[in-house]
Specification:
By secondary structure, the protein is α/β, with parallel strands linked by helices. The protein has 21 helices and 21 strands. Helix 20 links the parallel strand 20 and strand 21. The radius of gyration is 69 Å and the shape is elongated.
């Protein structure tokens, strides 16, 4: 009767994950060994590897003209020809990273020359610590063209032995002695000063030192590849320059020298531009001076030829004189008209009228005569009021009046002649002055053309003279393009190799390598490994039995091994499968497997012993009559089942033996191997035997033959209440699991369940308790688990 409804007590995801974890943990000794190996390798690597240090310096790029045509014309910014451009931080970064700057730095600091002290295991760079240095006299293109090695073995404070690149001796020399070479030219090995010269100091300086001369190209490429220039942030002109080197002092010296050369190159560029600007200005000043002299001579000649000193002043004076002459001409004409009026008046005057006084200007004589005349006329008229014309006094007065009237007429005629001459002179002067005034516009135009040339040349001369002084000041005080914010410095801890990183990598490799090996082993291993390989078949899983070093011993009541505890759990699980068996009849348990040596006999013997310990009457029957194995666990007689089946008058109880040490544990051995095992098992006596035993025992455990080799097990399967199909871990191929799967699906074995035997275990794993008895020496304990065992 098939029972597939038993509770699977092992269906637990946590157990599955735990099994996957313990699949690796059982090899903990290999993990420990791998960790120790990788950590040791990491320590050895760190011990003998050459560390690298990083040096850093920060500089501020000043906000000035960075060079090019903008700087060349910076003296003319005030003309508006161009505006001064600010330094482009990206351009300066590229300049600092340029090959040219790195090459200049390598040359200036002799960074292509390395001094390496030989050690027993590794050599170390002796930068700044070497007992000597080499002064090469000829550093030409040939010197920097190729790599060369010199070996110097210090013999004493005064002597050393020199070897070439092939380590062939070249001779013994004194420090300070000139050495000649076809490739390197003349050079001198100079000893550095020591504070003391004693035996201890000599021992320290003795030994071989390798002097490596790298080509300029290789040295430049090496340093340039290790330089990094980055801005500290996008809002400032501060750059951080870093360099990685095996010697922190060399990296510091290289960065400081790099910044110095960078500033010096910028100063040189600025000075060169200023010098060219000054040269240009001086040349133009010479030309302008000559042109200015020529223009000034033209001004002198023009003034001399035209008899002028200051044309605007003279023009103003001419205009003032012309105005005065015009006023004089008008005054003379007015006086002449007045004189004509007076002459006409005197012509019509009969001596009785008063002559107007103060009319004739600028003539005192006429005015006096008119005044006398008017006085006599007034006096005569007064006398005539009381007298007649015949009065002698009146007659005398009339004579005087006539005489004065004649004098006045004569005076007026002379004044008129004088005014005519004066008017003619004023007109002549006016005409002369008018001619000169008419020439002023032409003279002014001509003079302005000459003066304009003089003014332009003069202003250009003064401007260039001023710029020459400014350029001279610039040459005298050219400032560096950058300011060092932080001088080069280096941390004491190397950037490579990092101990923490290497130890972390070693730790990870120590875990990953055995994990990968175990994973690949499991991936490539086609053997059944864990319960999950058989649970996929869908057959009820009864339990797994760990590997036992005491596999040929039978479980006793005091057994506490993990195998014993596992078999006790199997027995408990069997109760769920056998709960449908009729009472008062023995529960028949058959053991089978796919192949021999899967441990079915071991399970049968120990399962029967476990049930017997609980007080139940148990019979163990060996029905693998082709290859009986019970005698490997229990001492049994040679007669048994096959003898009973092949005999007609044999008594069944005569072949049953009691196991020593157990009260209710009987065994029916397999007997001798018959020539016709299948025919014996097909007989009626087998069924009769089981019918008899089922009434005499509580449990019957039967060890049968493997199902893939013979049909013996299938022939007797109808007598079983349940079949325990034993699968041995790390032994049976997974492809052969098809056999139990087919048997279960076709129900050829009643109430079939699977037991996994000989599984891997560690102390306490599998069932939570149990103590594995291990009888191994300590060195075998360490390597008791292997990746592939």
């Amino acid at each position: 009767m098939q029972n597939n409804n038993i509770p699977n007590l092992t269906e637990d995801t946590s157990l599955h994950l735990r099994d996957q974890l313990f699949k690796y943990l059982i090899h903990w000794k290999w993990f420990l060994l791998s960790l120790l190996a990788f950590l040791t390798l990491a320590k050895l690597y760190l011990r003998y590897s050459i560390p690298e240090y990083i040096a850093q310096t920060t500089i501020l790029i000043k906000d000035e003209d960075s060079g090019g045509i903008a700087s060349e014309l910076s003296a003319f910014k005030d003309l508006g020809l161009l505006s001064g451009a600010k330094n482009d931080i990206d351009d300066e970064i590229e300049i600092l990273k340029s090959r040219t700057l790195a090459e200049k730095t390598v040359k200036a600091g002799d960074f292509n020359i390395s001094y390496i002290s030989e050690g027993r295991i590794k050599s170390s760079d002796a930068y700044g610590k070497s007992f000597f240095n080499i002064d090469f006299k000829r550093k030409n293109e040939e010197f920097y063209a190729k790599d060369t090695i010199l070996n110097i073995n210090v013999l004493s404070f005064d002597k050393f032995e020199l070897f070439n690149q092939e380590n062939n001796p070249l001779g013994v020399y004194k420090f300070g002695q000139i050495i000649k070479s076809k490739v390197l030219g003349e050079y001198v090995v100079n000893r550095k000063e020591l504070l003391v010269e004693d035996d201890k100091a000599l021992e320290e300086v003795k030994g071989k030192t390798i002097v490596r001369l790298s080509s300029l190209k290789n040295a430049t490429d090496s340093f340039r590849g290790r330089i990094n220039v980055v801005p500290l942030n996008k809002l400032t002109n501060v750059l951080e320059i870093s360099c990685i080197d095996q010697v922190s002092e060399r990296a510091i010296d290289f960065l400081n020298l790099l910044v110095t050369i960078y500033n010096n190159d910028a100063i040189t560029d600025k000075n060169m531009i200023s010098e060219k600007t000054a040269q240009f200005i001086n040349e133009r000043l010479g030309i302008i001076t000559k042109e200015l002299d020529g223009v000034e001579k033209d001004v002198e000649s023009y003034k001399k030829n035209n008899k002028i000193t200051d044309l605007p002043t003279e023009a103003e004076l001419y205009l003032q004189n012309a105005s005065e002459f015009k006023k004089s001409s008008l005054a003379v004409e007015t006086q002449a008209r007045i004189v004509d009026i007076m002459i006409d008046f005197m012509r019509t005057n009969k001596g009785s009228d008063i002559i107007p006084a103060n009319i004739v200007p600028d003539d005192n004589a006429s005015s006096v005569l008119i005044a006398d005349y008017n006085g006599l006329v007034v006096e005569r008229d007064r006398i005539l009021k009381s007298s007649t014309m015949e009065n002698p006094m009146v007659v005398r007065m009339n004579d005087k009046i006539k005489a004065l009237q004649s004098s006045i007429n004569e005076s007026l005629r002379r004044l008129k002649s004088t005014l005519a001459v004066k008017s003619s002179d004023v007109n002549r002067q006016t005409n002369i002055l008018g001619g000169r005034i008419s020439q002023i516009p032409k003279q002014e135009r001509e003079y302005r053309g000459i003066f304009r040339q003089q003014q332009i040349k003069e202003e250009l001369y003064l401007y260039l003279f001023k710029k020459r002084e400014e350029t001279a000041i610039t040459l005298a005080g050219t400032a560096p393009i950058s300011k060092v914010v932080d001088s080069a410095y280096s941390s004491d801890s190397p950037v490579s190799p990092k101990k923490s990183v290497f130890y972390l990598i070693a730790f990870m490799m120590g875990i990953l390598v055995p994990t990968a090996v175990i994973y690949l082993r499991n991936l490539l291993d086609t053997k059944v490994k864990t319960r999950y390989d058989v649970e996929r078949l869908g057959i009820p899983f009864i339990g797994d039995v760990p590997h036992s070093d005491s596999h040929n011993e039978i479980i006793q009541s005091n057994s506490r091994t993990s195998s014993a505890e596992a078999i006790r759990i199997v027995r408990t699980n069997l109760e769920f499968i056998l709960n449908s068996v009729e009472k008062n009849k023995a529960k028949t348990i058959f053991m089978t497997s796919t192949l021999p040596k899967e441990g079915k006999t071991f399970i049968a013997v120990n399962l029967a012993a476990t049930i017997a310990i609980s007080g139940k009457k148990v019979l163990l029957i060996g029905m693998d009559i082709r290859n009986p194995k019970l005698d490997e666990y229990i001492k049994l007689p040679s007669r048994g089942l096959t003898n009973y089946l092949s005999s007609n008058d044999a008594v069944l109880k005569d072949f049953v033996v009691r196991q020593k040490g157990y009260e209710h544990f009987d065994i029916l051995p397999a007997g001798i191997i018959p020539p016709n095992p299948a025919e014996l098992l097909m007989g009626q006596k087998v069924e009769a035997m089981f019918e008899q035993f089922k009434t005499e025992y509580d449990y019957i455990v039967v060890d049968t033959a493997p199902v893939s080799l013979v049909t013996d097990t299938l022939l007797i399967s109808k007598n079983a209440d349940t079949f325990i199909y034993v699968v041995r871990a790390n032994y049976l191929e997974k492809a052969l699991l098809k056999t139990p799967e087919v048997l279960y699906r076709e129900r050829k074995l009643p109430n079939m369940c699977v037991l996994l035997n000989d599984t891997d275990s560690i102390n306490g794993y599998g069932y939570g308790y149990g103590q594995e008895v291990v009888k191994k020496p300590w060195y075998k304990k360490i390597f008791s688990f292997s990746f592939f065992g």
